[in-house]
Write a structure and sequence with these properties.
Tetracycline Repressor, domain 2
Length: 234
């Protein structure tokens, strides 16, 4: 009987904690840190303030849990199946013949990155992190930086694996990936986080994705002059 009571209390504890986290997530993302009170979180979570503080000792501790959890989720969403592209058709012989394929695949990857990093929840998270950057830089801006680093590392690995099939000669995949990400996100991050900003997202995505793909092919494709000024592959 005592063991069942302990298990029941544990289940209730985890349930109330989950409710608090999901509720506070919505409130923080909508209203920010300063305009969110523990009273509001307790009320909308359906728990007493005593219960709320039993789970989280302060609003800052709760905010840290929420933002850390969301950043982790967004990182997984951004990377999941990012490079699951349709198999290339046979018959593209020669580096020049594979350039259209390289552009097509790189454009597809860039569009996926933008779709996953600039959807409404991601934009709300970015705005929240930017606003709270001065107060909690390691958690917010540092967390966003870590997500970007994971994306750059994944793109660099993609370049290592696919360079031959795409007829790209990339000596420094990390450098190329960093350039690719910078061109993909160019201007869009700022436009997205500015309150009241309006941007034609699909059109802007296609433009940036196309530019990023074209620059990589021009720099690292057959007969191109790489970033160091020498012939790629020479």
């Amino acid at each position: 009987m005592q063991e069942m009571d302990i298990q029941t209390r544990s289940t209730r504890y985890q349930s109330s904690r989950g409710t608090i986290l999901s509720t506070s997530r919505e409130i923080f993302m909508r209203h920010g840190y300063l305009d969110t009170s523990m009273d509001t979180i307790a009320q909308q979570s359906g728990v007493s303030k005593t219960t709320l503080y039993a789970h989280f000792e302060s609003k800052e501790a709760l905010f840290n849990q929420v933002v850390g959890k969301v950043l982790g989720e967004r990182s997984r969403v951004a990377l999941d199946g990012l490079f699951d592209l349709p198999a290339a058709e046979d018959g593209a012989d020669g580096s020049a013949a594979r350039e259209p394929l390289a552009r097509e695949r790189l454009t597809a990857v860039a569009c996926r990155i933008l779709e996953r990093t600039l959807d409404p929840e991601a934009v709300a998270l970015i705005r929240l992190c930017v606003i709270e950057g001065a107060r909690m830089p390691r958690l917010t801006l540092g967390g966003l930086g870590e997500v970007r680093q994971r994306l750059v590392a994944a793109v660099a690995e993609f370049f290592r694996d696919q360079a031959d099939s795409l007829a790209l000669s990339i000596d420094e995949p990390q450098e190329a990936a960093d350039l690719f990400m910078a061109l993909t996100m160019r201007d869009l991050m700022l436009e997205a986080v500015l309150p009241g900003s309006e941007i034609e997202i699909p059109r802007a995505w296609r433009h940036n994705a196309g530019v990023a793909a074209d620059v990589i092919v021009r720099l690292y494709g057959s007969g191109s002059t790489g970033p160091t000024g020498r012939m790629a592959g020479a």
